[in-house]
Amino acid sequence: MLTVDVRSRVEPELKHEAAAILKAAGLDVSTAIRLFLRSVVEKGGLPMELPRVNPTTLAAIRDAKAGKTSRTTLEDF
Fold first, then answer.
1. Which residues contact 22 (CB under 8 A, 6 or more apart)?
2. pLDDT tens profile 30-65
3. Helices 12-24 and 29-43 sit at what angle, rounded to 10 degrees?
4. Considering the entire predicted model, what is its pTM?
5. Over 80: is that where the pLDDT of 1 sits?
6. For the chain, what percent of residues have pLDDT higher than 90?
7. What is the C-alpha end-to-end distance of the chain, expressed in Å?
8. How far is CA 68 from the centre of its chain?
9. Would you call 46 helix, strand, or coil by DSSP?
10. For residues 45-62, b (16+ Cβ closer than 10 Å) or e, as one string?
11. Cα 22 to Cα 69: distance, rounded to the nearest angstrom
12. What is the C-alpha to C-alpha distance for residues 72 and 51, in angstroms, rounded to an integer?
């Protein structure tokens, strides 16, 4: 029995495009979200692999968040 609402804010175009793809597969957005959540529970995590950030990029992200950035132009190269 369905007893709770799940709300999410996404870009209108993303919702529209996803809904069209799901409709072609015979699903609606609510059913797809239910399937996703069921997969999370069954797998004990996300049902897909996410790209991992390499150490260099991670260090650059940390520096940028800490305000430790420098300005580089193409002429600098």
1. 28, 29, 31, 32
2. 999 999 999 999 999 999 988 888 999 889 889 989
3. 90
4. 0.62
5. no
6. 61
7. 62
8. 27
9. coil
10. eeeeeeeeeeeeeeeeee
11. 42
12. 27
